[in-house]
Specification:
This protein has a seven-stranded parallel β-sheet, with helices on both faces. A two-stranded antiparallel ribbon has the order 1-2. Strands 3-4 form a two-stranded antiparallel sheet. The two termini are about 40 Å apart. Strand 5, helix 3 and strand 6 form a beta-alpha-beta unit. Helix 3 crosses helix 10, helix 5 runs parallel beside helix 6 and helix 8 packs across helix 9. The protein folds into two domains: about 70 residues, no CATH class; about 200 residues, Rossmann fold (3-Layer(aba) Sandwich). The chain has ten helices and eleven strands. The chain has about 350 residues and is an alpha/beta fold.
């Protein structure tokens, strides 16, 4: 590998974006030329930062693209002289979400938070509903709404808040949900536990959808994105029997609504993630810890074992699910309707 020494300036493309990699580009402003010494240690840190924040941390960083390649790969080529130093630009796809009104349920963490950040980063005005809102209060373009979406009136209250403030809803993201691993299987799962799973994972979405559809029908447009789960159809597991049944019901609703309301300009799509590195899996009392307790291993071993069964050997991230939600909410996917998108690292092997 060639030695790293001094270099010509890097030009941050005017109107193309702004990068801050943990202070290494802290003096860079859009349209300015910044002299950066090509010190290997500094740029190794820059590459590491870019990789760590792949498609995430939208409030502070974006991956930069050069000639349709990832920023870290392209920058490595630039540093070590395989392509020569050149202007570094980022071309961001416009999702046409500027000033769209979006409602996100279960928005305070995990996939809901990632979806909220992704939509807001695209210029949407987001009404973000959750029982707690501590992660939402400082987000630009986001109105936190403290609401218990598990109550009969909660979803409609959230939608009504959006209508009162903005006069309409353009996008609904049904994300709120919860999972409790049932170590006793079917016979160990009571009717009340099934009812709880259906309430949290199906009826919350049903009620939010029922509240938002009349307005979308009147305006002749709208996008609904339902966050389902791989567990709705892939290797049904007794440990998630109630959760899987509820998410399967959500997928059925998704397809049915796409048929009834598609002709009226309303698109309905679903995303079925596999294991995602969120609190549902990793927090105290989460899926990994429950598996660990049931199998006699520690939580870290349980996580590693699950990841080993995925062809990519890793959990998906909330940010990649949030990015897909933003795309499905946008007119860039104007003819995508009634579909279910799987993000699972190749876990499902059937076509």
């Amino acid at each position: 590998m060639p030695s790293v020494g001094a270099c010509d300036p890097i030009v941050i493309g005017e109107g193309r974006g702004y990068a801050d990699a943990d202070g290494l580009l802290s003096d860079a402003e859009v349209g300015r030329t910044v002299d950066l010494p090509l010190q290997k240690e500094a740029f190794d840190r820059l590459l590491e930062t870019a990789d760590q924040h792949h498609l995430g941390e939208r409030r502070r960083k974006q991956l930069w693209i050069v000639s349709n390649q990832r920023f870290d790969s392209a920058l490595t080529d630039i540093i070590y002289g395989t392509r020569g130093l050149r202007e570094v630009r980022v071309d961001v796809m416009d999702l046409h979400l500027e000033n769209k009104i979006a409602v996100v349920t279960g928005a305070n963490r995990g996939i809901g938070l990632a979806a909220t950040e992704a939509l807001a980063a695209e210029g949407a005005r987001v009404l973000a509903g959750s029982r707690s809102t501590d992660n939402l209060v400082e987000l630009d373009g986001v109105t936190p709404v403290a609401v218990d979406l598990a109550t009969p009136e909660g979803p409609a209250q959230l939608v009504q808040r959006a209508v009162e403030e903005h006069g309409r809803v353009d996008v609904l993201v049904n994300n709120v949900g919860a999972l409790r691993v049932r170590t006793g299987g079917f016979l160990g799962t009571s009717d009340e536990e099934f009812e709880w799973a259906m309430q949290m994972n199906f009826f919350t979405a049903l009620k939010a959808t029922r509240a938002v559809l009349p307005g979308m029908v009147d305006q002749g447009s709208g996008a609904i994105v339902n966050v389902a789960s791989l567990m709705a159809f892939f290797q049904p597991d007794p440990g998630t029997i109630d959760y899987g049944a509820a998410k399967a019901a959500l997928l059925n609703l998704n397809k049915t609504l796409s048929q009834e309301f598609g002709p009226q300009g309303i698109r309905t799509n679903a995303i079925s993630p596999g294991p995602v590195g969120t609190d549902m899996w990793f927090a105290e009392g989460g899926v990994a810890e429950t598996i660990a307790d049931a199998t006699g291993v520690d939580s870290e071993t349980a996580r590693t074992d699950v990841a080993a069964g995925i062809p990519t050997r890793q959990f998906s991230t909330a940010e990649e699910v949030g990015d897909l939600i933003a795309y499905l909410a946008s007119d860039r996917s104007i003819n995508v309707n009634g579909s279910n998108f799987v993000i699972d690292g190749g876990l499902v092997q059937t076509m």
